[in-house]
Known about the structure:
0% strand, 62% helix, mainly alpha, single chain, 2 helices
Amino acid sequence: MAATRNRRRSIAILIVALGMVVALALYIELGGYNVAADAPHTAPVRIFLETLRRRSITARAAGIALPGDLGSQQRI
């Protein structure tokens, strides 16, 4: 009996997850989110994008060695 209940629960979770994926795909396909440059992002999207940008820069800049003469007149 417990196995049947767990299987039903797993199927229900799978159906809900699949429904969420389909809903997100439709939202994207129908242009539901405004990406215009003159419209500000919603707070969650702004936080996501800022975090993504910061972590991407950190990951790619890790192997870059700064030159020792950054303050020299010739470099400036």
